[in-house]
Structures are given as C-alpha cells and as structure tokens.
Write the structure tokens for this entry.
Amino acid sequence: MPQPHVSPNTPHSVCSIVPPFLLARIATLDDPRFERAAYAARRSLTDIAPEHLDHGRGDHSLLPRSLRPDQPSVRGTINRAISDAQGTETLPGALVRAEGAPETDDGSVTEAYDGLGSTFALFWEVFARDSIDDRSAPLEATVHYGKLYDNAFWDGRRMVFGDGDGEIFDGFTRSLSVIGHELAHGVTEFTAGLVYRDQSGALNEHVSDVFGALVEQYTLGQSAADASWLIGEGIFTDEVEGNALRSLKAPGTAYDDDVLGKDPQPDHLDGYIKTLDDNGGVHLNSGIPNRAFWSVADSLGGYAWERAGQIWYDTLTGGSLGPRADFSRFAAATVVSAAARFGSNSPEHEAVLAGWTLVGINATG
Amino acid sequence: MKILVWRSGGLLGRRVEWDVVVDEQPDPEQWYLLIAELPWDERPAVIATPDRYTYRIRCDPHEVVIPEQQLTGPWRELVDRVRDADTQERPRESERGEPDKSRETDKSDVSGKSGMSGEPDEPDGER
C-alpha cells in the first residue's frame, strides 16, 4: 500500500502546502515511521480555520510525485485493492484481493472488486479519465466494516462498506450505483472539490448520484428510457417498503416505509429543505438537480452517458466550478458546457436549459 | 437528566434520534461519571466526509456536534450506551425542517448561507 512520503525532518513545511483533506489522512496514520508527521498534521488541523477545513479541492494536481502511487507505463491500467475490516472499524483492514488475483469465496469482496472495475470502465472508456485522479490512483475498498454497520462511505482515500444492519439494509456492495456513487466522491474531490455542505454539498451528492447511475447503466447497457434511474436498488431488506435510496427520475418516490419514513427528496427548487441536519440536507436537496439531469437524458434519448453524462463530466472537470458553487452557478456551467461541446441551440443545449427550467433553477448565470 | 442523541447524514441523509433519562437507568452513577468526564467544551474540527454520519449530543446545558470519525473513546461509549438503553425498538425518524416554500433565486441564495453557522461566505468561483 503506497504511503505518503513525508520527511520526518520538516513536517511543518510539508503540512503548510498540504490541503486539509490530506492532512486529515496523515493525521490518522499510526505507523511509527510517520509519528512526527501525524502529530504535525493534527496540530495543523487545529490551526486551520473551520471554514477551510472541508475545502476538498485545490492543489491535487500539484501533489508531489512521491505522494502518488507508482505510475504505470500505460494509462488506463486499473489497480484494485479490496481489504476486509473483519467487523472492526480499523482501516484499511487486511488486504484480501489485489488486482488480478482470483475470485475469493466472499461475495462482498467479489462485488466490490467487480464494481470498482465497472466504475473504472465508465470513466476510462467513456470520459478517458484514468481512475479518480486521472493518474491511475489505486481503487481501494474495504468491506465488512464495523458490526451491523448500516452505511457505506468514501473516506477520502477508499470506499468503505458496512454489512448492513439486517433490518433496513442488507449489504451495500451489491449495488453498482452505490459503488459508483462513492467513487465519484473521489472524482469530485480531485476536480471541482464541491464543499460538502448546503447547495455545493447537494451538488456533490448529485454528481455522485449521476455517475453512480451511469456506472450501472453503462455496465448493463441500458438506455435512458430503459434505466431505472434508482440509486441503491436492492440494498434494502425485504422488510422495507421501498425500491432504492433515491430516484433521479422521480425524487421523493424511492421509498415509503413505516420505519424509514417517506423519501423526503424534493424534485423542484420550491421544495428546497433548509435544515441543520445532514450538512444542510445534502442528500435531500440533491433531488432537485438529479431530476434536471434525468430530464436532459430522457429528452435526448439513447445512452445517457454519451451526451448528458458528457456535459456533466465536462462541467465537473472544466475548471469553471468553484468549490462553493450553488445550484444556479452549476446549472449555468452545464449550459456553457453543452453549448461548447454540441453547439449553441443544439438539441443538447436546449435539453439542458429545459432540464433546469423543469426544476425551477435559473441557469442563465 | 436526559441525554439526547441525533444522528444525521449517512447514505440516506435521514435523521434518527435516541434518548434516555439517566435517573431511570439501573446504574445512574456510571452515567454521571461518564457525563462528567466528557470534554463538552471541545469543538472537534468537523471535516465533512461524504456519506458519513454526524452526531449531535445534548445533555443540558451542553450540546456538541461530532463527526462519526471522531466519535471515539468516551463519546462513543456514551452514544452506544444511549442506543442500548433507549427503550424504543427502532430509532425514530426525527423531524427535520419543513420544506422552504419561498422560492430561492440566485439573488437571494448564496451558497453557504443556511443559517447553520457563522462562517463567512466566500465568493463563488474562487480557486
């Protein structure tokens, strides 16, 4: 496993150029070789003003080579590593399947391995993106995290999957859209760096839902018309009255259950939820741009990754989005991207404008 | 004395709630000892990690917000105790804010302004 190279003699000079998300990673290293660096990173984190701490984007392109994994000779070479936390909350856990290793008898490991492969394939084959950082970063996942842990997340370096609590969730690795969603958080971190709070956070979530859905559709060869547009289909237990975590096509309809409640996602700006929870409702208000994306894909037809997905990818990586972009700014950027790639007044350009109009977001910038 | 724990975020973004009344527990002294040793005045740096949980713990007059990755040691012990002691069979879906019926336009809505904190706004598009 590649380790960040940190000089033990000059921890402060390293930490002064290191973005907060990387400091947070270094701060948790417990290898004695990096004791001083970890200490320095923790000190640096407490010195950083809170408003800058979740500033996830920025100088990724300036990471010294020593902090990146060894460069393969050929772009587009996948490098997966699946680890098993064995019911603990210690990361990364034990490596159980490296790239090219044979399938094991652990279904979760197989699903994670295959899902990472499918996600890599979408980004490389469709968008010519070489892993999440476009520089062949290893794709790492940990399964069997925690005990009855009812969640999955991206920790800034790897995807982490619980096994579910057996009451609501029955496993997360079986959903291609969940795996794609989590890895897409990594892509966002390396590109637009949308701050995970309020509208920029809802956009961060939205981007992950878009590419999560596209991973599933690309892998299964589904057109926009045939796709379910659901995120996390199949991860609920049979006891739950619901199809999935979210629906891009119809936000607010994914589930209606006596324990979970009803899917609270709005599908229009009029329903925007102002809340202190969930970092300002990032999983809730993502429904609004989600429906806009579905609308663009649906009206253009064919495969969603070819045009709608391309426009969104261009927007995410084009460099015009700030980390605190709000819905309007993001929408305006998609309009610009559509015109740039397909031409002004093209069907694609018109579809994007119509999509944002549908959900009540001003896309004129 | 009542302890309330809210957990929000996660893949679904839902908020759930547990609570206990300390004096109704079989071992209230253990609870008081734990409560007394907790660093209620610390403000853990909240580094928002995608799809992780955020815990809010209230024990009047104290209230803290702790990201999941920092819910360790005595904080974790407190939350685990509250979850175990809560007599409800399943976590209750907790009320969230009502949908905002007023239209949010780009003029009135600036990213970062949710009333959540006093942090200063930064202009969009900065790199």
Confidence is low (pLDDT under 50) at residues 1-16, 49-67 of chain A. Strands of chain A lie at 80-84, 94-98, 139-143, 152-154, 159-161, 230-231, 246-247, 256-257, 261-262. Chain A touches chain B through 69 residues (CB under 8 Å).
